[in-house]
Specification:
The protein is built from 9 helices and 4 strands. The protein is mostly helical and 194 residues long. Strands 1-2 form a two-stranded antiparallel sheet. Helix 3 packs parallel to helix 5, helix 4 crosses helix 5 and helix 5 packs antiparallel against helix 9. The protein starts with a helix and ends with a helix.
Length: 194
């Protein structure tokens, strides 16, 4: 690292700011992470897609409902956990859908949450890690996911601390819910699986 910083100082005409040193350090860590991922045979794809394992995980917790229901904290939900239709309209009390519509909504939601994970995470991920993160984002929403401490730890290459952050997301309406505890444990286990 010192040799690289010295070289950068030389080509930049002398002194580097702390911000430049920190940015270089982060870049080297990411590059190293990509090298390690390549050696371990982990696919490095900036546009990853959820696998059948991830879909199974999500649908095992998102029951299929063809009639809109309150998710327990005042959010109306339909299909496989859809809260916003593809046209941007929120699900409302009294809404219903067909099985085909529910599947279509689910596919739209998967694309949306895959994009959120791909955009927020800038380090290499295994397929299991990506699937676990999409499941989490699917449940907590894109904004909560993108601004989470989990993502900050992950982008700092602290996979263990990131994994432990899954367990923090176990509340709805301020109360710990057993279903969320089970989901977070399953997501964390998948994230840690080789």
């Amino acid at each position: 690292m010192k040799a690289i910083i010295d070289y950068l100082r030389k080509i930049s005409g002398g002194k580097l700011t702390q911000k430049q040193v920190d940015a270089t350090d982060k870049l080297i860590n990411v590059a190293t992470a990509y090298d390690v991922a390549d050696m371990l045979g982990i696919a490095i794809d900036s546009d990853m897609s959820v696998s059948s394992v991830g879909i199974q995980l999500i649908t095992s917790f998102e029951d299929l409902k063809l009639e809109a229901y309150d998710d327990g904290v005042g959010v109306w939900t339909i299909g496989y956990g859809t809260t916003i239709y593809p046209n941007g309209v929120a699900v409302k009390k009294g809404n219903s859908c067909t099985l085909e519509q529910a599947k279509s909504f689910f596919q739209h939601d998967l694309r949306r949450f895959q994009t959120a994970v791909n955009d927020a995470v800038n380090i290499p991920l295994s397929q299991n890690q990506f699937d676990a993160l999409v499941s989490l984002a699917y449940n907590i929403g894109t904004n909560a996911f993108k601004t989470s401490i989990l993502v900050k730890y992950l982008n700092a290459l602290d996979y263990k601390a990131a994994a432990d952050q899954f367990l923090v997301w176990n509340k709805a309406g301020g109360s710990v819910l057993n279903g969320l505890v089970r989901r977070r444990e399953a997501e964390r286990a998948l994230f840690l699986k080789k």
